[in-house]
Amino acid sequence: MKIKRFRSLAFKLTVWYIVILGAILVLAGLFLHQGFKEGLMNDLDKALVEITDEAHEKWWRSRGVTWKEAIEKAETRYASYEPFIQVVEISEGEKRHVENVIRSERIPEGVFLLDTQTYFRADRTDIDSYIFRTVEEEQLSSYPLRVFLFPVRGPLILQVGVSLEATVANLNNLLIIMILTGSIIMFLASVGGSFIINRALHPVKSVVKTAGEITAEDLSLRIDSKNRKDEIGALVETFNSMIARLEKSINKIRQFSGDVSHELRTPLTIIRGEIEVLLRKDRPKEEYLKTLNSVLEESHRMEKLIDDLLFLSRVEAMDRSKGTEIVDLDEVLNAVIKFRSPSASNKKISIDSKIKPIQLKGNRELLERMTANILDNAIRYSNPGDHIEIELEKDKNMARLQIRDTGIGIPEKSLPLIFDRFYVVDPSRSKETGGAGLGLSIVKWIAEYHNAEITVDSKVDHGTNFIVTFPLD
Amino acid sequence: MRILVVEDDKKVAAFLQKGLREEQYAVDVCRNGKDAVYEVQSHPYDVIILDIMLPGKDGFTICRELRENNVLTPILMLTAKDSLEDKVIGLSEGADDYLTKPFSFEELLARIRALLRRSQDYKTGILKVGDLELDPLRRTVQRAGTPITLSGKEYALLEYLLRNKGIILSQSKIIDHVWDRNYDGTSNLINVYINHLREKIDKDAEVKLIKTVRGQGYKIDEN
User: Fold this and answer.
1) Residues of chain B in Cβ contact (below 8 Å) with chain A
2) Which of A190, A246, B81, B126 could pair covalently with B86 via S-S, beta carbons 3.0-4.6 A apart?
3) Quick one: B2-120 is in which CATH superfamily?
């Protein structure tokens, strides 16, 4: 699958990363700006206090120096600040008003006056509560002014103001520097971040590429984990083991359908071939009869196979909770033995049974089929004169069913395979006896359905013993 | 023409043998790969019909082994598998043709004829020497336009001679290709059949086609 660039994980991660980084930078910038601003204001306030002190000192220390002279001296001393200094005289009586203002020549008349209330409040302040104000006074400065009010005996208020021009300029410079460095950081971070993220996600792309090449037809491909021990390595491992499981089950299905096809095609080939050869010319009656019998036999073979296949596909979808009842296993066994006895005695095989009454929870039809299949096998793979023993007994909380024969037995190397579908020990022999190799796989399935354990003991030329152990509740 | 059928299913092998014998082919049957390789090396077969799913050695392996041993006999694979992959494997292991079960017996015969023709470089399929013609498809023989009726073995013998036109064929070679392994008669029988053929083909004709090469065998030739 092709992923659109802006939908890609790398793109999303980069965007998120930039947004978060941007937010952090803005926040840090705000704090920095605020802190810097407070610092500058503090410095300015200190300077205001110093200038005020200077003017007050000049007036206080040197007897005979007028306020006017003191103001001028302070202005000269702190010329770099270009301070505006004036002394405001307020009334002492009931009626509160400004009596007189001694101002520097730099201040035009009627300018730089605060409201009367503030002056009266300033008169009652001391070192802990001095009043600092930021005011607009366009005639003095195009920038706001920082103003300090200092009460002097009199009652006089010494008012000193300094323009915020330098402070604002400093703050603006800071802002510009912050924006510039911020932008550069953001740019480098996004380029670098996207590079790192793309690099980290590169293995994912190669995983996607290989995974895209894997199809149901060819599951042999595996993704190269390049021995990575990280999350992607783990993902690749998981992926590979999933593909391996898929391959195994698809191969099983393929093998199964191939076997089904072979098993169905063989009788069809015989039916068609025998009839076609037969019809090529006129023949004696016996030949027609022989061929018809053979064709009938083959159609039985197909019928049995189709029946087994349908049974398997039906029961595999069956719900385990349904269809269970209390079954008398002994009755089931006796019925099966009764039904199979004629074919056994035809082959001169004797059947003995020791069956104790046992009830268990299960499916009667399935149990019948299971015991019939095992017994059929015992009859099929025994020779005339052989003997079959069927035993059902209770052992603690188990029911044990044994079907023993003295027949041809199963070679040791075939034992682990006999429950596989379509496995037949000796193909030429089973074709003559009519087994397609589904019987025991059905038996195994039914045993598992009943939580029973099935084991086989066998020795070639000595016989076979099937043991099914059912749990009893 | 002698055919080996390698097929493990008894009934399939049986109807193949019966049908092919009725078409005057000499037919032997093997039921597993090991026997097949042995049989092919001890008898000169003209066509091998080979099943793929065999006990022990499968058809692909047998085919490859035969080709590795320089056996050039045409091989027709017969199998219940019909996936393209299997066909490709079969043909690349050295099989000449492929037929999926179940098959039409007519088609099998046609393919066998095609394989025989291919191996002998014939284009039309009609075998000719002078004015003698044999049509393997219709199983008819005529000399100068006059139809001649032959018995099964006479026909098989004539077909073998015609397919090896101009080549001297020893009596044992004729036995190998015209009779299957159940034949245990003497070479004198060949003489009898050659005489029967001469009766029917050469007796009334000016040019005698079947020739005896003293001490070596027989050949069919127009000069």
Assistant:
1) 8-12, 15-16, 18-19, 22, 31, 53, 55, 80-83, 100-106
2) B81
3) Response regulator (3.40.50.2300)
